[in-house]
Every structure is written in structure tokens, then in C-alpha cells.
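Database export, one record per block. Field names are fixed; values are copied verbatim from the stored entry.
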Amino acid sequence: MRDSAYPEVEKALLLWLKKARSMNLPVSGPLLTEKALTFADQLNCPGFACSNGWLSRFKARYGIVGKVVCGEAAAADKEGAVEWQDTVLQEALTAYDAADIFNFDESALFYCLLPNRTLAFKNETCTGGKHAKNRISVAFGVQPATIRNCFARAQFKMPEEGNDENMEDNEDGEDTEDCESLLVEVLERQGEGVDKFNFGTFRDVDGDVLTSPDFSDSDIVAAIAPRPDSSESEEEGDVEVDDGPSLSEAARAVTVMRAFAEKRGLMDRLARGLTDFEDAVVEARPPRRQVKITDFFAACP
């Protein structure tokens, strides 16, 4: 895949896309195209053409694919869920015995519906008929071995018998207790005061860290646009580019190193490396045009 002719436009568009996805905003191909044209105008790239081919290469370069937005996790009320677990759920649990509480779910089973994918010949046209809507509701019950863990993660905590008054609300569960003991052990080994830290503070130390800066379009353009340096522009004409040793010099160096290794008895150790280096020099040579027989006659007077 060839490199982009306008890398600054792609860098700006990539920053904008990361910002949009960090805010969980849906981004389509036309929207990406429109934003690329906007950045091209702001970065003074009049020759930029936002074609379908460029958009496909841009997606391939940065691993951008289309995905189906499913679920409603982004719209979940987390604070409301915590409040419900602490109040409504606890009141409901006191009205039932632990043996009468089950983890249960249901789903629709379209038992007459055929698969929508099939194996077929290349030239065969695959057409389907009307989809059958016959369905039954299937109930799923969780095995007893997983009920305890599922209930613990969902904050279903029942008071122990004879200890209702002294029940403590441990929202983090057994994992938090293990982490607390591990943190205390680490602090004691390092000679730090245990009373200065706790696992909750350690866990939430970066809770307010800004992980996705709120860049505006102008901020993105300012970060991408090249900044001219007057001192570099004045000396630009005097700078000589060092291309390094030529291919012929590298070939002579291989010959010298091979002779040195043979004289010093080091060929057993260096033969593999010298051969690899020599092969690399040969591969770096530009392709040569095969000489024709007419070239010999052309050289004659």
C-alpha cells in the first residue's frame, strides 16, 4: 500500500476520530469524508481529493472497520443502578428466602427460521423466501455452580443467620479484601506506614485523569500544522545530505572483512554474518538492463 500524499490531513482526521470514539459518537463514512475535506482546507492542501479509494486506504492504514453498535451499555444509569442495589434490592431480598431466589432469563426461539448463510457455487444466485416468524419463548436457568458468583457480582448479598444486625456492606467483595491484605504486605516490606494508604485510594488514584483531551478542530490543526523555523530555513541551502557509503564501498568492505576473518581464523564465527551482509549488498543494487547483441554492433565505428 502506497503512502499518503497528504499525511498531515490523515493525522488530523485520526485525532478527530479518536476524540469522537472516546465520546462514544457514531461515525460514518460520509462524515469522515466531510471532516477530511474540512481539515484539508484548514491545512491549505488544495490538491487533496477525498475519493472512495482514499477513504478505503485510510481505513486500511489505521485498522478502521465498520461495526454494529449493539447493546445499551453507553446509556446505562450507573449511579441509579448502585442506588437500586443499595435500597430497592435489599428490601426485596428480605421478603424471600435464599432458596427461593433464582437466576433466570428467557429468549425467543424461531424454530422454523432457516440460516441466512449457505455454501454455493460461484456462479449460483442465492435467493431466499419469506422468513418464518413461528416462535416460542425459551426459559434458561443457570446451573447451581454459577449462581453464587453471579449473585455476588450483581450485589445480591443476603444476611447471615443470627447476624442481621452486624452485617456490613462490602460492595467490593472478597477481591477487595485480598487486595487490601496484599497492599498492606507490600507497604510493610517497603517500610511505609500502613495508615497512610488504603486500597480504595490506590485504586481510584487516577479516576480523575483526563484520558481523552477535548480537542477542537482548531486545536487539532494547530497540533498538526508544521511550524516554520527561521534559523533552519536560512541554513537550508548550506546543509549537505550525507548519503553514507556507496554500494561499491560496502562491497569492498565485505571483501576486507572476509580476508581479515580468514587470516585470523575467525571464519567459523563470522562466516554466517559476512554472507548475510554480502547478500544484503547484492540485493540493494539497482536492477540492471540485460545487454542486447545489437549493443555490441552499436559500439563499433
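Remark 1: The chain has 13 helices and two strands.
Remark 2: Confidence is low (pLDDT under 50) at residues 161-171.
End of record.
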